[in-house]
Amino acid sequence: MNVSTLFYVLENLEGKNEELINLEEIYELEQKYLSGLFGMIDKARLTVRSEVIKNILQSTGTE
Q1: Residue 8: which residues within 8 A CB-CB, separation 6 or more?
Q2: Which H helix or E strand runs over 7?
Q3: Given this model, what pLDDT does residue 43 score?
Q4: How many C-beta neighbours within 10 Å does residue 30 have?
Q5: Residues 37-58, mean pLDDT to the nearest whole number
Q6: Nearest-CA neighbor of 52 among 38, 40, 63?
Q7: Which of 53, 4, 60 is nearest to 29 (CA)?
Q8: Residue 32 pLDDT > 70
Q9: What does the pLDDT read at residue 38?
Q10: Do residues 5 and 39 make contact, with C-beta atoms less than 8 angstroms apart?
Q11: Are 42 and 3 in contact (CB under 8 A)?
Q12: Residue 17 falls in which region: left (phi positive, over 0), alpha (psi -120 to 50) or beta
């Protein structure tokens, strides 16, 4: 996962109609707009355990 994708997901957990934004849509937006903005930081890749994602979703009430 790119660092910018993680930031984007965390900032936009509630999207259209207060639903979690489609990850494919996020990826397309990232490729189109955010890659240039986060180019340097994206040299670092994150490996995120599924438990971390589950905890984020539970804490935000989106699971």
Answers
A1: 26, 29, 30, 34
A2: helix 3-11
A3: 64
A4: 19
A5: 74
A6: 63
A7: 4
A8: yes
A9: 64
A10: no
A11: yes
A12: left
Torsion of CA 43, 6, 1, 17, to 10 degrees: -140
Q: What is the DSSP letter of 61?
A: T
- Other C-beta atoms closer than 10 Å to the C-beta of 20 total 16
Q: In three state form, how does the secondary structure of 17-60 look?
A: HHCCCCHHHHHHHHHHHHHHHCCCHHHCECCCCHHHHHHHHHHH
Q: Looking at the whole model, is its pTM more than 0.70?
A: no
How many angstroms separate the CA atoms of 36 and 58, rounded? 31
